[in-house]
Write a structure and sequence with these properties.
22-stranded antiparallel barrel; mainly beta; 4 helices; four-stranded mixed sheet
């Protein structure tokens, strides 16, 4: 109720503020004098081309701020935490600038005024890899000669957490040098997890344990440095080399829990700490061979060193340490030919990865894994009058070796999209895709970790990839003020990696993953965005239904959930007011029913010369914010978790951004591929 009231109040404030602003500054402008412009959203077979308005770019201080104002469907964009996630659970969100996969540092250093358009891909092709549901490619211009210096700092005023980036770019003719440094950290004590666990024992009795946090402390800080050199000759030639280093440290997290175990009651302590560092070298090359042909190559080397320590004393002391290292070499080459009437692209990707994680203490194990992966793909895109099409096929060969476990397997990924322009601004499209999904490396390890006095997590080296078949029907309409669509999505997962809970003879409960029968998902949704007053007041809303079907070897679980989000943005000269709310995301996968918390943001921004100040109020009037809730529905193990966090309720953050730029502008060459590895393969409690 508080969330709805806050959103309604800010909508009224935006409208009333705009009325006063219009009376004071726009007395000569009337509604019949509005100039009708071309649509700033254009539909295509795999998504949309979005042209941000001048008001949206001028009111934004970095890449996250601009994307938040674009109201992209199915995405939660947090420009305070600097994160973007998919609220529909279909997969990950991939961020690119001029084709380059980027992270937080590049998004914070991005000057929104230099953005020419955004390629929002909600139907990625076969070349984007596994588990990528959305791709946001931001196309920009850069200085031909000159420099850019800037800083972006976001402290949270109601808790001890913050983020800061400083950066510099120097351009001289064809060369560009970039250096950036980012620090982020937090020290929080507002997290509380309550847990009810009911264990059905071998004799049929139910053993109940309540685990409730009474005191917690979470601390972490990270340092990220990146150096980049780019040599570009317009769009004909690009060479880029970058070297980055990431240092992360968790100096000492702990929680004290009140345990009620049957008739016993006592306190237990959980402690964990860790650190990691990861240098990355990235070499990229692009060459325009002819006006219609080009070749692109990318090579990335990554090293990840990790150390962690874990301790808890529920029932009895249990402690283990992990020392791990990962070495990977990733390479890709792509050929493209713009033929008539279609464009042909083809490529091959090779990945080698070596992982060695040494578990010592009570979780003694040595996991040594070698993996070779060759992925080849080909895709054509073209049009026949009002019909546009995209046809692609990817094939992957994986060789996997871990201790005594070996396997070799092929995976295939065919994909086809047909899009028909019914009328001006209206498009109907259908997509069919079949892909195979491999489990995360940590779950195919042969390590065993005790999570509490009754439960263990066990890896399964015999996990095989699952096969997904997806159908998407999409109807969209765009004009100068409206952007709307309706969509139906159905996914059939054959033999997915699903959770398995086993009870042992001595009443211990093991969590692992095995290939079971199927998971099916039906998702129906609609979205609409409308400029109430062009360049001044915009509102949007989307909502829908998700139906989940889970078929295990000895159970069937089904679940229906509803979701919505809404927002409004008012551009009042140097001031910008924004309100956004969603009701969270609910799902059922395997035997776990989950909920990711609702979110509300009220934001006011002010622009002054090279400075911009933004004040954000997250989850107003909610002192004990519920960030997550989940249930395990196994017949022998029922668990109910509730995660509350005082640090993220009624939270106020201030963003200060400064940017000084001098130089002439020209269009930057696109970098179409980029590779990255961040998986250390460590199994966690």
């Amino acid at each position: 109720m508080h969330m709805k009231q806050s959103l309604f109040l800010l909508i009224l404030l935006c409208i009333s503020s705009f009325s006063a602003f219009a009376q004071n500054e726009d007395k000569t402008v009337t509604l019949d004098e509005v100039i009708v412009k071309a649509p700033n959203v254009i539909s295509k077979a795999d998504g949309q081309i979005i042209f941000p308005t001048a008001a949206q770019k001028n009111a934004s201080n970095n890449g996250y701020g601009l994307l938040l104002k674009l109201s992209l469907p199915n995405l939660r964009i947090d420009d305070v935490a600097h994160s973007i996630t998919a609220i529909d659970g279909r997969g990950s969100v991939q961020l690119r600038i001029n084709g380059i996969i980027v992270g937080k540092e590049e998004m914070l250093a991005l000057n929104p005024k230099l953005i020419s358009k955004i390629d929002f891909i909600d139907n990625p092709g076969v070349r984007y890899g596994e588990n990528v549901a959305y791709v946001i490619n931001i196309i920009t211009k850069r200085n031909d000669s000159g420099y850019t210096l800037g800083a972006d700092i976001t402290p949270t005023l109601t808790s001890l957490q913050g983020d800061g980036t400083i950066y510099g770019k120097w351009n001289h003719k064809k060369s560009e040098f970039t250096v950036s440094y980012n620090y982020s950290g937090y020290k929080l004590n507002g997290t509380r997890v309550t847990e009810l666990a009911e264990y059905t024992l071998n004799n049929g009795s139910i053993h109940t344990i309540d685990r409730d946090d009474v005191e917690t402390l979470r601390k972490a800080h990270s340092h990220d440095v990146k150096l980049t050199y780019n040599l570009a000759d317009s769009t004909a030639f690009v060479f880029q080399a970058s070297l980055s280093e990431s240092l992360n440290k968790t100096p000492g997290n702990y929680s004290i829990k009140d345990i009620i175990d049957g008739t016993k009651r006592y306190n237990s302590t959980n402690r964990e700490s860790g650190k990691s560092n990861s240098p990355v070298l990235d070499l990229y090359f692009f060459r325009q061979l002819t006006p219609h042909q080009s070749i692109t190559a990318n090579v990335v080397g990554t090293y990840i060193a990790t150390k962690s320590s874990n301790y808890y004393d529920e029932g009895a002391p249990y402690q283990y340490d992990v020392s791990g290292k990962t070495v990977s070499a990733l390479s890709e080459i792509i050929y493209e030919n713009r033929l008539k009437p279609f464009t042909l692209s083809a490529g091959v990707n090779y990945r080698y990865k070596y992982t060695k994680n040494d578990y010592t203490g009570d979780a003694f194990a040595l996991t040594e894994l070698k993996q070779n992966n060759v992925y080849a793909f080909s895709e054509i895109k073209g049009s026949l009058k009002n019909l546009r099409y995209s046809l692609g096929l990817g094939a992957s060969y994986i060789h996997y070796n871990q201790n005594a476990h070996n396997y070799d397997f092929w995976t295939f990924r065919p994909k086809a999209t047909l899009a028909y322009n019914i009328m001006n601004g209206m498009q109907l499209s259908y997509t069919f895709e079949m892909k195979e999904r491999a489990s995360r490396i940590a779950m195919v390890s042969d390590a065993t970790i005790q999570t509490n006095s009754m439960e263990y997590t066990v890896g399964n080296p015999d996990l095989k990839p699952s096969r997904d078949i997806e159908h998407t029907l999409h109807l969209s309409y765009n004009n100068d003020r409206w952007s709307a669509f309706a969509e139906g999505f159905y996914r059939h997962c054959n033999k997915p990696n699903m959770a398995l809970y086993e009870r042992t003879a001595d009443n211990k409960f093991i969590y692992t993953q095995i290939n079971q029968k199927a998971i099916n998902v039906l998702n129906v949704m609609a979205y609409a965005s409308y400029w109430i007053i062009p360049e001044k007041l915009q509102a949007y809303a989307n909502g829908g239904m998700m139906r989940c079907f889970n078929y295990g070897f000895d159970y069937t679980h089904c679940y229906t959930s509803w979701f919505y989000s809404a927002g409004v943005t008012a551009y009042l000269g140097k001031f910008t007011l924004l309100a956004y709310a969603n009701n969270g995301f609910r799902f059922l996968e395997g035997e776990t029913k989950g909920y990711n918390g609702a979110n509300t943001i009220l934001q006011c921004s002010y622009k002054y010369k090279d400075w911009q100040f933004s004040l954000s109020w997250s989850n107003p009037f909610i002192n004990n914010y519920k960030s997550a809730e989940s249930e395990i529905l196994n017949r022998n193990l029922y668990k109910h978790f509730v995660h509350n966090n005082r640090d993220f309720g009624n939270s106020v953050s201030l963003n200060i951004s400064w940017r000084l730029s001098r130089g002439r502008k020209h269009q930057s060459a696109d970098k179409t591929i980029n590779l990255r590895d961040t998986d250390n393969g460590i199994i966690t409690r």
